[in-house]
Sequence to fold (512 residues):
Amino acid sequence: MIEIHSIVEAVFQHAQRQPERPAISFAEQSWNYGKLCAEIERFAQALRVWGLLSGDRVALFLENCPAFVVAYLGTHLAGGIVVLVNTQYQQVELSHILTDAGVRLCVTSSVGVQALLRLELPDLTALVVGDGTASPSPTGSSEIIAFADFMMRGGGGKLAMPKAEASAVIGYTSGTTGRSKGALLSHRNFVANVEAVTTAWKWTENDHLLLALPLFHTHGLMVGMHGTLYTGARVTLRPKFETADILARLHADPSITLFFGVPTMYARLVKEAEKQGVPAHLPRLFVSGSAPLSSQLFSDFERLFGQTLLERYGMTETIMNLTNPYDGERRAGSVGGPFPGQEARVVDVQTRQPLPAGKTGEIEVRGPHVFSGYWKRPEATAEAFEPDGWFKTGDLGWCSADGYYTITGRARELIISGGYNIYPREVEDVLESHPAIAEVAVIGLSDSDLGEQVVAVIVPREGCTLNDGEIIAFCRERLASYKKPRRIIFARTLPRNALGKVQKHLLAQQLQ
Ligand code: MCA
Ligand code: AMP
Fold:
């Protein structure tokens, strides 16, 4: 392959060589590389005609579908930066992300349009609606255009491929204080990481991935979709993960060679396969990531499916960091070692000095896959890096003498539920704004399906009465539904230390 500088360039190269080659299957639709390229080019031209300037932000607030990929790579070809938005986000997250990133155009669904029109977003001047027909805006604040009509504006005019160092994506990630921060990733980060991942997992153009992860996060997009399009392979994209659907697809299509999921998906597959049996043909590789995979699930899957899960570790800021080997031992409870061309180490949390094998500290990573910094947050960026370029992941762990890393916890407060990250402070902020709540502490407790579940310990204001349903509804209106507490506990006080800080570990111990 000639040297390429972006994922979109790889797609164009495959299309030039083999336009008929299958790229994406989605519901009844089959997209080959030729068609995919033509649509990407048209979308990019339409963006330019609309007035998109190099470096302008385009948000994708859309469920899995081929239009997502077209808008994603079309934005890159037009020189824009993509802002990824989880479709579960509600007013608090949407207002923050779209305002912070200064998004000018958003590709969304008709449901998304309704959510966005309720918000004050002065920079947002156009909504391109990927499903159904676009009805005119009731407020007249943003232009609403149907995807098909928008595409009609494209045509003519060759566009230059993006430069490797240009910014490609802002991925919002849970902040340690206040609101989430945008991690700015470049085309160079993508190419370096996808090259490392596809090499490590022996991913070639002959592979066929079954992908049911959402495209609006790193796992689905930058591992699943990038890997496919970079190698010229094929993907069957599903709108969302449904256990029975995945088993049925595996059963029906022996050409599928790869499947990626979060541990919750594997736990559900094991449960379902115990009832209805395992498909006769299985992919050559099942990868797990985004949340800790328990040794129990690792061995249950092996016993039932006769295949060893390959666990790897990543982050929005760095894409993929560590992986168990494709050939060698895939060790239960471990995330393996660095991908080719990347570095990792464990340092003492206080002194920041590297620690010997077996000692627990903070994991740091370095390499061409690591993002350049947080969008408009120079102080947060400076804090996240050591002077010599090591990125502080905020994850705690240790490395064995033979180079296998184990993640043991997190230096920052974070709940991971079903592979989604939830920052307790964000949920606490919303709950504290409730007039009948005096104090609140949000913690994560273990959950057999989701890994961890969100639990809120609430002290009501004097004389106020509250019920669970009311509190959950209050959260759901403001935040993504997966962030809502699944359990609410009323208390008279919260345990605090001498400095007045809530002792969450005591709460967790009492409630577990
Ligand atoms: C959905 N719900 C959840 C979650 N997902 N609640 C807690 N945690 C969750 N993860 C809630 C919904 O809000 C809804 O609530 C109800 O469950 C049913 O929604 P549904 O969509 O049917 O949920 P599901 O099918 O059960 O979804 C579970 C899931 C999904 C398939 C595991 O959460 C999922 O796709 N997770 C993958 C996330 C992912 O891609 N993470 C990668 C991030 P209600 O009915 O009350 O509204 S990237 C990353 O972490 C790094 C880079 C890495 O290393 O990969
Ligand atoms: P995100 O901020 O969504 O990019 O999530 C990244 C975080 O997910 C990491 O910092 C880890 O805490 C966690 N994570 C990802 N993969 C794994 C894994 N295999 N085991 C444990 N935690 C993981």
Summary: The CA atoms of residues 164 and 188 lie 5 Å apart. The longest strand covers residues 437-447. The mean pLDDT is 95. Residues 88, 213-214, 217-220, 241, 262, 264-265, 289-290, 314-316, 417-420, 450, 481-482 surround methylmalonyl-coenzyme A (ligand 1) (CB under 6 Å).
